[in-house]
Amino acid sequence: MTELLTAAQMRAIEQAAIESGETTGLELMERAGAGVVEAVFEEWPELGDGARRAVVLCGPGNNGGDGFVVARLLAGLGWDVEVFLYGDPTKLPPDAKSNHDLWVGMGAVAPLNVASVSNGRRPVLMIDAMFGTGLNRAIPLECALAHHAVRNRDVGDNHPWLVPFHVVAVDCPSGMDCDSGHILMPEYPTDIGDDVDAHWRWWKEDASKRLLQTDLTVTFHRRKVGHYLERQSYALRVVDIGLGEEDRRPAHLRMTRDPEVACLLDFDPTRGGSRRMWPYDLVVKRPSEGRHKFDHGHSLVLTGGAGRTGAARLAARGALRIGAGLVTLGVPPSAQMEVTSQITALMLVRVGDGDALNAVLEDERINALCLGPGLGVHDRAAALVDAVLGGGHLRLTRHAVFDADALTLIAEDSSRMDSLNEQAVLTPHGGEFARLFPDIAEKLSGVPDQGPAYSKVDATRDAAARCGAIVLLKGPDTVIAHPDGRCSVHAAVYGREAPWLATAGAGDVLAGFITGLLARGLDPMEASETAAWLHAECARAFGPGLIAEDLPEILPQVLRDLGA
């Protein structure tokens, strides 16, 4: 697992390295600029074939200093480079000022505004080194408009889409809060008038163009939290700038359980050998672990009534495929014939009401429960939820996954929320999360104009702390949080996209995967992280045409590939 850093953590790491005397700010800036240039040629090898045109937009801080290094290195390769600076060069930080002066010895620096950047032919490469992680407010409108003005430059007789144009952000796209992934939005003028600049009108009228669209972001030392939230669409590369592996941060900024600190990326596919260690070693059965089905756990999945059992059957199949030794469906009398005709390896037990469930749970070998998929929100379903919660206390010897309708029932009665503890996993999507935690969801849905903005990580941590259970907030940027503040992000981005998971029943299979891993003996946080990763990996392995039934069936292949 790989740590994701906040902007404050990254600044602390750099400062600690400088204060130790092991490096200097100028050395770090030089390595950063060189890393950006190297990443550009790795991403687009054709740009290394000869001299091209580039525009570098520099801001008033150290991110701008990185931009001056990039400009100098590209010019040294024979490129035609235009450099623009937002702000007063005499007020640049010392290291950025030094690199500004080095560039001035090679070329001109023009003011960064719409008028100055609009002239000339469109370049093949634009470097956004305006603000990066250092900005905690909305990007100045002049900078945003200038960014778009470069994109709109003349391309001669060619169609714009046929002329290569690549945008590279240094560390973080300017205007994006690197702790949350949110674009910090500026206040709009109320009296723009008819004579407003054409670039401003174009930018204002189409919300999709307000974002400073980026093709590649090159970040330094570690990935940042915001790179994995809010559906980021750029490519991401991480550059080593010589800060090493040692955690140099002050104690209050290190990776701890403090919700104000950082979180983990639950799997890093670039780290080679670790791929075979996690999650393969957590999932695959071994002879030393026992040879009887009950040695690998017994899951109980509760179903809805007739015509509503499919979701629970999907969850049960997922639990069985991921390694639970035995999976039983708890079925009401009205659905027994329907379920019996649909299952083979799965078991069935009659569960008509809360009393019947209590009788079934006298079997202590049942060590993981799943309720919610297709369960309904009627009196029987409420009685089953209440039985699992044990009249005020979750059965401490059993783990439980609450999904779908069970989440709706918990949201309807605060006493049910109060009965949760660390044995439980809640798996809401955005709508269910809003029903469970309306005030947290409202805070998350706000449009921020300052940073650090309230993020999905913050919201999931706050929800877990409030309910006392593990919360897995689903989405392309799934976030999983423990009540003690531990948190991980599972983001199906940067080559791990899995759009095929947007299909009915996929979430039910995820609930089943978690339940099966709980039965196997994984703790709830670990089970949730592993299941989320495998869920996306199954979708990626199957590809287009995926339906929910395919997810459990492709899992054995995914596990074989992990252990190959």
Tags for this model:
UDP-N-acetylmuramoyl-L-alanine:D-glutamate ligase, elongated, Rossmann fold, 18 strands, alpha/beta, 564 residues
Task: Outline the structure in words.
This protein is α/β, with parallel strands linked by helices and 564 residues long. The chain folds into two domains: 2-183 and 214-255, Rossmann fold; 274-444 and 451-563, Ribokinase (UDP-N-acetylmuramoyl-L-alanine:D-glutamate ligase, 3-Layer(aba) Sandwich), CATH 3.40.1190.20. It has 21 helices and 18 strands. The chain has helices at 7-19, 25-43, 62-76, 94-104, 114-117, 141-151, 198-205, 274-277, 280-283, 310-321, 336-340, 354-360, 379-389, 405-412, 414-418, 430-436, 438-445, 456-467, 506-520, 524-542, 550-563, and strands at residues 2-4, 53-58, 80-85, 109-111, 125-129, 166-170, 216-220, 235-239, 263-265, 298-302, 326-331, 347-350, 366-371, 399-402, 424-426, 470-473, 477-481, 487-491. The strands form two sheets. It has an eleven-stranded mixed β-sheet with strand order 1-9-18-17-16-15-14-13-10-11-12, with helices on both faces. Strands 4-3-2-5-6-7-8 form a seven-stranded parallel β-sheet, covered by helices on one side. The two termini are 20 Å apart.
